[in-house]
Amino acid sequence: MNRHFWIPLACAALCVLIVVPWVALAAGGEGGFDGVVGSIESRYHQHAMRIPLMGLASVVAGAATHGGVDGVQVAEFEHFSAPVDGEELNRLVEEKLGQGWERMIRETGRHGGEQTLIFSHPEGKRMGLFILDLNGTELDVVQVSVDPDRLNETILKYKHHDGGEDSSD
Amino acid sequence: MKHRMIALILGAAALIAPACAQTSSSPFPLPTPLEKELAARAANVTEVTLGKGMLDFAAKIMDSNDKDQAAAKQLIEGLDGIYVRDYEFDKEGQYSMDDIEKLRQVFETPEWSPIVHERESKGSESTDVLMKMVNGEPRGIFVLDAEPKELTIVLIVGPIRMDQLSELKGLSGLGALGDVEKKTKTKDKSDDKPKTGGN
Predict the structure, then answer these.
(1) pLDDT tens, B89-138?
(2) A100 domain residue, yes or no
(3) Number of domains chain B contains
(4) Which of A101, B44, B138, B181 is 20 to 30 A from A36 (CA-CA)?
(5) CB atoms A156 and B63 under 8 Å
(6) A4 to B3: CB separation less than 8 angstroms, yes or no
(7) Together in a domain, A62 and A4
(8) If you measure CA to CA, which chain B residue comes closest to A13?
């Protein structure tokens, strides 16, 4: 009796383990930041410029802000001349970012090359932010993880170092 | 046989669950097809969707020592969401009064009370402001501002004080809130005077 119950269940679970990653792969490979950048490159036939030593810069940013800003990833498309359908771009980004990312801001123009998408992703105390901005012929893609408490501490520290802004303004 | 059926159902559920999780409904209560239709017709679209999590996050990075930021921080800390939709059209007549009516109908519930209902005589411009009242306390505000080539929808959910609204006008798409505060104040004053006509 038990065997009749568990064997089909094990088969179903095995199917999930095999089929889901296969479907994800078939649907367009990796997700996240690299997935979005890769998809933009292949969809619009443009090449992204990765900032050299970005990993190091991210570590420095993390140290300088005491963990306030972390996991910085940047890709830049210069001379982005392909026509962009705002709805299609939004769909592409949503699909590649995957679950857990929620769109916060979207500004899209039908005529011009101006598109802005900002997504957020709660990560416990931190917040992941994904920003895509197309302005004319330059498209920038940025992902960053922010700890608001630590970032605020750092901002306040620098404000005090600057002599402090007049709070009565 | 019964157990095998249960196992198959569980297996199917395991396959379907990830797909269902991706189609979570938007907290913005306006009809999605209408949103999409308006967005498709508009030349420029601005959508701002700030849920409670994001508002809490924003409040954390606001400076309590700065007078303006402290006021905005105090306001957004208690809110459940801020939603803005702004549609700019190339020419007049790209949305209809029927569209406006559909948007208004969403808020035709006993909880929502109209506080401003302004119409231009030609009928090409209108402003509606509705307030959600729960136990006599304002718990939300809905602004629908229609101009010949622009349609702006603002929805703020959560406890809100009218005198604090202008603190939010610096946020993208919320510039109209400063005007709403003025309009409601004007309405309050005009309520003290004898009425000479309807809206």
Answers:
(1) 999 989 988 888 888 888 888 889 999 888 887 767 889 999 999 988 89
(2) yes
(3) 1
(4) B44
(5) yes
(6) yes
(7) no
(8) B11
Residue B109 belongs to domain spanning: 28-191
Tell me the chain A residues in contact with residue B172 when contact means C-beta distances shorter than 8 Å: 105, 107
Same domain, A63 and A15: no
CA distance B191 to B186: 9
Evaluate the CA torsion angle B178, B171, B115, B163 in order and state its sign. Answer: negative
Output Rg (C-alpha) for chain A, integer angstroms. Answer: 21
Give the integer Cα–Cα distance in Å for A21 and A31.
12
The pTM of the full predicted model, rounded to 2 decimals, is 0.72
Look at B48 and A104 and tell me if their CB atoms are within 8 Å.
Answer: yes
Euclidean distance between CA atoms B87 and B81, whole angstroms: 20
- Residues of chain B neighbouring A1 (CB-CB closer than 8 A): 3
Domain with A11, as residue range(s), is 1-29
User: Are A20 and A95 within one domain?
Assistant: no
Which among A81, A122, A91, A102 is positioned nearest to A28, based on CA atoms? A91
- Maximum separation of any 2 CA atoms in chain B, in Å: 78
Residues A62 and A83 both lie in one domain: yes
Q: Output phi, psi for B142, to 5 deg.
A: -125, 125
Tokens representing B176? Answer: 């109209």
Tokens representing residue B194 in the block:
């004898």
**pLDDT single digits (tens) A122-145:** 988 899 999 999 998 999 999 999
Partner A contacted by B14 (CB < 8 A): yes
Instruction: Round to whole Å and give the CA distance between A56 and A72.
Output: 10
Query: E strands within A34-167?
Result: 49-50, 69-77, 102-109, 114-123, 126-135, 138-146
Among all residues of chain B, which has the CA nearest to that of A68?
B61
Same-domain check for residues A153 and A80 = yes
Beta carbons of B118 and B104 less than 8 angstroms apart:
no
